[in-house]
Amino acid sequence: MATQQQARTHSGIAQYSGTWDKKTALHLLRRVHCGVKWEDIDRFSKMSMNEAINRVLDIDYSIPSPPINNYSERNPDPNVPAGQTWINDYNGTFNNARMGSLRSWWFGEVLNHDDTIREKMVLFWHNHFSTQTQVYNWANFGYNYVQLLRNDCLKNFKTMVKDVTLDPAMLVFLNGERNTKVAPDENYSRELQELFTLGKGPESQYTESDVIAGAKVLTGWRINKSNGNVYFEANRHDETDKQFSAFYNNTVITGKSGTQGPEELDDLLDMIFAQQEVAKHIVRKLYRWFIYYDIDETTENNVITPLANIFRNGNYEIKPVLEALLRSEHFYDVANRDALIKNPVDFTAGIIRNFDVELPGANEYIGQYQSWATLYNTARGQQMQLGDPPSVAGWPAYYQIPQYHELWINSDTLPSRNKITDAMISYGINISGTRYKIDPIKYNKKLSNPGNPNDVIDDMLLHLHTLEVDQAQKDYMKSILLGGQINDSYWTNAWQNHINYPNSETKATVVSSRLAFLIKYLMNLAEFQLS
After folding, report:
1. Per-residue pLDDT for 299 more than 60?
2. Three-class SS state of 222
3. DSSP readout, 268-329?
4. Where are the domains of the chain?
5. Average pLDDT, whole number, for the chain?
6. Are β-strands 252-253 and 429-431 bridged in parallel, bridged antiparallel, or unpaired?
7. How far apart are CA 459 and CA 180, in angstroms?
8. Residue 223: strand, helix, or coil
């Protein structure tokens, strides 16, 4: 870790008391949403900071519309009518088709998220409690896993760990259902301690014997594959006492038999959560997701430790930690703004949301799911496959020293990102013969003063750029709008002519082509990759 003198910033978790304006609100929204609509910047900047954060954290836990049968045109399903949900029908014949439906639906939830942090937290927990659809390979399990993350995302972390431990997707992914007294499987016990709770920090001194003892505690859990129910099978459970190391104060978890066997899981979690390092490990992961990848000594002392104290003293409730973080002077510190490279899901969904690109609606559900699948595959092509992180540790961008988020940008992914933005401002996505793309005129109409070229550039820079821009670069951008003319009135008149004659294709083309060129230029700048 860096020394105090090398610290990026000395700010801590005291409440931010600086200016709350469009730029500040945009910083919040960039970190908690997947793309930011222009109208949301305006709306959130008119709130107070506390009102904005309350809105972001006011999660609606009602269940969204589930994934549906969008595949019957090519693969008729006798059990589930076209357009209806398949989540309660456990039929392996249609599993592959339903897995595609699940992936598309999940990306649709990201695209259509509300004002809250919910979908960003679902992604965070998916990266933390990683599973792979290709391993558990059951669409119903996948849906239940996503709903678990969505339902628990801002609630109690200890409860969430127990829920994940007994989740069918996780039980298959890390061999929990195969864990028996005859052949204890250490896979989940290891990751429970190493990744999900305690981490690999210097204060996490659990031992290999603790992994083995934990595996014995976790024996006996099974899944009914016909309905997804998880149950405990006592005759598969190790009933012996489990001895843990000095790290756990030499705790002995007393072996239990019969219907009392499941209680050992609670004993195990009580023992783990008594360790100080659990809170710090989770706070560090939240920090790397929402703030920055580098945690120096000053940040550890000024941010991580006090947030971990809030977490621990609050009985591991997640929401108070996020409240303190998002209200802190550290979160709004200039050193932490525009400092993260967007991950591929954020980048791809952000293009659609930033420009409010119109996609097929629910009344065209086949086209709707096709558009979501296209965008899912677009993010996948940038090395972020929703539902299938590369390992149980999640995506390397959130743990791989020293590159961290720089791993998202390489000789393959950067050209791919530029091709995506170029496509979306030119020919768009082809869905059943209809092209869906950025509408530059629609976007410009939302800006504060669309007929003034200086204001248009300032608004676009605020929304699509991240860092300060010198006047020479602004002048070049304005030359794009003016089409080689000198006076600002050229753009003002061209825009007004379009407004006065909206049915004139010629007048629309004049402004549309220049706006498209400017938007394309901005999206191809390196700064567009930052959040």
Report:
1. yes
2. strand
3. HHHHHHTSTHHHHHHHHHHHHHHT-S---HHHIIIIIHHHHHHHHHTTTBHHHHHHHHHHBH
4. 440-529
5. 96
6. unpaired
7. 61
8. strand
- The fraction of the chain above a pLDDT of 70, given in percent, is 99
Structure tokens at 372: 């979501």
Beta pairing partners, 530? 341
Q: How far apart are CA 173 and CA 295, in angstroms?
A: 31
| Three-point CA angle 226, 229, 234, nearest 5° | 110
Q: Which residue has the tokens 């209806």?
A: 84
User: First and final CA of the chain: distance in angstroms?
Assistant: 24
CB-CB contact of 337 with 16 (8 Å) = no
Give the model's pLDDT for residue 2: 45
Q: How many CB atoms lie within 10 A of CB 72?
A: 18
434-457 pLDDT, tens digit per residue, is: 999 999 999 999 999 999 999 999
CB-CB contact of 293 with 19 (8 Å): no
* Omega prior to 402 cis, within 30 of 0: yes
Q: Are 351 and 424 in contact (CB under 8 A)?
A: yes
Other Cβ atoms closer than 10 A to 513:
13
Strand partners, 229: 224
Structure tokens at 312: 């621990």
Q: Residue 290 has which token pair?
A: 């929402």
Q: How many residues does the chain have?
A: 531
**E-state strands within 214-283:** 221-224, 229-232, 242-243, 252-253
Residue 297 has pLDDT above 70, yes or no: yes
Q: Where are the alpha helices (DSSP H) in 20-156?
A: 22-32, 38-45, 49-57, 95-111, 118-128, 133-136, 139-152
pTM, full prediction: 0.97
Position 261 confidence tier, pLDDT thresholds 50, 70, 90? very high
Identify whether the C-beta of residue 322 lies closer than 8 Å to the C-beta of residue 286: yes
The residue type found at 176 is G
Q: How far apart are CA 527 and CA 339, in angstroms?
A: 10
Distances (CA, A) of 17 to 24, 40, 166, 408, 428: 12, 22, 43, 33, 42
Q: Of 266, 383, 286, which is closest to residue 330 (Cα–Cα)?
A: 286
Q: What is the DSSP letter of 490?
A: H
Q: Name residue 518's amino acid.
A: L
Q: Tokens for 496?
A: 């007004």
Nearest-angstrom CA–CA distance, 414 and 420: 10
| CA–CA separation, 199 and 201 (whole Å) | 6
> Hey, which residues does 492 pair with through a beta bridge?
none
Give SS3 for 166: coil
Q: For 266, phi and psi rounded to 5 degrees?
A: -65, -40
pLDDT at 1: 43
Other beta carbons within 10 Å of 303: 25
Q: Which of 8, 10, 4 is nearest to 303 (CA)?
A: 10
